[in-house]
Queue: 3 jobs
Job 1
Amino acid sequence: MTLSCNYAEPVIFISHCPQRHEMLLINQNYRQLLERIGFTSFAAVWAYAGGEVIKKKGERTVIRAKFPSPPEPDQGPAGDSTFYLKKHGQRLSLWQRLHCLLRPTGVCGEGLREFYHYCQFRRNGLATAVPVAAGIRFSSFLRADSFLLTRDFAPFTALEDIVLQQPATLQGAENQQKKSNILRAIARYARHMHDSGMNQKDFNATHILLQQLESENPQVALFDLQRVDHNPLNRFYWPIKALAELNFTLPAAIFSESDRLALFSAYKGKKSLAALDRWQYRLIRRKTDSIARHTSKRGLAPKMTGSD
């Protein structure tokens, strides 16, 4: 199943190494934009002080900014669009640094790693937000600074925003078919992702994007691909982890147990679940409860559940 959306088109990128300890990856479609705004080197991007800091945790900072963007087929003429600049400061282990030296074109630094994840998803026909550029610079032997620049995912809407701001659009008998269509589309995306050998470790309502909600086949995309598992030994566990993570962020006031079971059935591609499937579903429910306990123990208040 390939998603018929330009957000699933493969990314053609250019690798640029202006200095020995520096590398840039540039989405070819955004090369002229980056030149216009002066993002032609790692130093220029890293020194950018405009926009709004929307998240800062340790040595990771996320900045939201508006830049003129090229036109998209489904978005009309060019104009200002929102972009997100994620900066990482990272101290490398000796093994990580040696790996970077042995494979200079490999995945080094959080920013480049996430950019490559976006490219991998799109190569497999999985829609994502738009990766614009990424870069890395080694400021010392064991110190790497990196960044990732992505474009806002409009016209997609985060499932979290729909649930929090428009819950009535998914409630009641009149919206049951719409909700079922959305859950089926999400389940198929998750199955396609896993069949492609990848699992986004934060597969939840915050990172799931939706478009054409009234359609029989809503479009699904993901953003924030910093944490992706490729280990084939974990493949059996992927649906348990992913669907439990998603279940935890689906409020019980909107999504019933029948909805959750339908989500799992759509993931399995079955109308009738076998004994092994039912056992796997019980593991998902158990994992969901475990996430809830862990979240409560840490004193976190999940927005999706309405907990105090």
Note: The chain has two domains: 6-151, 157-297.
Job 2
Amino acid sequence: MSDLTVERLPPLGMVTIRGELSKIGDAIVGETGCAVPAPRMSERSGERQLLWMSPDELMLVCEYGEAGATADALTARFGDAFATVVNTSDARQVFALSGQHAEDALASLMPVDFARMKAEEVRRTRMAQIPAAIWREGEGWRLICFRSVATYAEDLLRGAKTVGG
């Protein structure tokens, strides 16, 4: 039996931003209210969270209904800058994860040292055979994966074992 509580969340807004962050950073801050995060970190402003995904990619997590307008506003702010902004909300599934031994259960599925992850840290990794991103959210975790593999991901999470479990 798993010591991991798994909740499939309703859709969240997700806007993928790609470009030279040093050139578009001010526009990102102006539109989102979030500072551009350092590598493998996140920044918050109210209900919005900006996640570092790679040296040229960020993901804004926001209310589902805001994502389209926010993507359009970012595109307008970037002007002629070489950048791509896409509303990826419908392409991803978000899970809320918690439990007394959640970190052990998650570590059985991912090559991540969860005990060393900082509160604002984001990790892009793999969970068994699928790409995923994970970060702390309060006392628990948030995990995102592609919606096309969400059932597989949920089955993996629900079957995760802890040491001695």
Note: Residues 13-89 form a domain with the Alpha-Beta Plaits fold (CATH 3.30.70.1520).
Job 3
Amino acid sequence: MDTDSAAVVRPSVREAHAAQAGTSQDSRRRTPITDAVARVAPSVVTVQTEVIERAPADPLEALLGRSSGQRILPGLGSGFITQANGIIVTNAHVVAGASNISVARSDGTTYPARLLGADEPNDVAVLKIEATNLPVAPLGNSEGLIIGEVAIAIGNPFGFVIGNSEPSVTTGVVSATGRNLITPTAQGQMYLDMIQTDASINPGNSGGPLVNALGEVIGVNSSIFSPSGGSIGLGFAIPINRVIRVTEDLLAHGAVRRPWIGIKTELPASGSSRGSLRGGVIVRTVAPGSPAARAGLLPGDQLVRANGRTLRNPFDWEALLLEARVGESVSLVVERGGREFSATAAVADLPDVSAPKVQVLREIELITITPAIRSERGIRADRGALIYKTSARVTNEIGIQEGDVILQVNQLAIERAQDVERALQQGSSGVVRMFFERGRRVYTTEFVIR
């Protein structure tokens, strides 16, 4: 072999060795996490919104006789494809009030999106884009999650800064399950029965999937708890089993069938001997003819467990109802007079107590809580809207009365009186869940707005 021929052969051999080495290194770098990401990431999308807001009044413009006009507020979140024909799941708060919604895939392809339905109490929304043969996210099971198992958050945090639609990945573990966030999160919202993770969830991650090591979606990233607005290792996701139920209802009926058994609950009084150290919730009222009444429940009963889950407070009860399906049953352990007994209540549809949105707002006078008002009225909450005056109709049909303090409407924590109007105006027609304080205890009520 001459020198020239040898010179040609040797580089080819070196390239072959390099290719083999590269393949070996690639295989060593692959882990269950990288495989899980590769399985789900193609289905993750960026959700872009535009909300039209009336611009604040400008005194100079008014003096000149000009209208202040409107301004467009851009928003951004994440979502994931659940059906190959363009069905996408995201958070309701990501698309709330949006006049225009678009979806961008990781390759940059952008589609106009249509909102098929949203359920604010569960913070789930379903979008539709006109496309076919799309990659679909494999859905897992959020029951039986193992504390400490791998959790992978995929989404598009800080999308406006990064400037593209390729998803980002952060990893952590499932820190806890069944978490109730009754203090406002960074988004100013409260959530029930959530998956807690230390995988970093930042602005723009909302609506993206939380994934296990098998590459299955176990939750929808929804919120962070942070004084700064950035991740500090406290992220929360909606369990995928609940998301599936809500999505099925939205696709089939355009709304979620709200489970109801006909009771209102409260915490045992502080210092009460009625099992206060054990937790539990007290049945405050039982609706006549309701499933609870047929099951033999009475006002004053204490609910200790439901479907095998210990009830620590009314939020645990509300969380359990979020998971319940109409037509199923709830198994209860009840304490009455120092003795426990079992009861089973069927889950029915929430009765349609319908209240026009505008009429509700006209018939309630609210004032923002101040330290002076708290002290004068003995209010526990340090924020909220006090019902200063309301009508008998609102009290009878909705269940709130003068002196109550509204703490939350759907997912929005109420800081000021104006927040109540904003929550009702932004909310789509459907069931409204309201948390309020009365006599230093927290209650809930539900009603339908149109």
Note: The two ends are 89 Å apart (CA to CA).
